[in-house]
Amino acid sequence: RKEENAEYKDLMASNGAAKEVILFAKNRLQKFYNPKLYKAAPKAELSKEDRIFVNNGGTPPPTEAPGGIAGTGISVGFAQMASSSSSEVAPPPPPETMEAYT
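Now predict its structure.
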């Protein structure tokens, strides 16, 4: 039963994320095909210091990248793989060509 429950929770989380992506795509299509139904994303509020900085010609501070699947509470971690190791052997040199291209 615990396995079924865990499987069900994963399924519901992925379904919720998929529905959210579909609604996002639908809204983006509304922007082009039916602008009356398009709902613009809310503007980010800047702090007083950031507003002063931007008004004086600066660039706004970068926003934090989303960290996971929206609305599910699931965070996605990225693992960095080693590109090469000391046990790997270098590939052989490329084959020789017939003659120089002119």
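Residues 31 and 57 are 30 Å apart (CA to CA).
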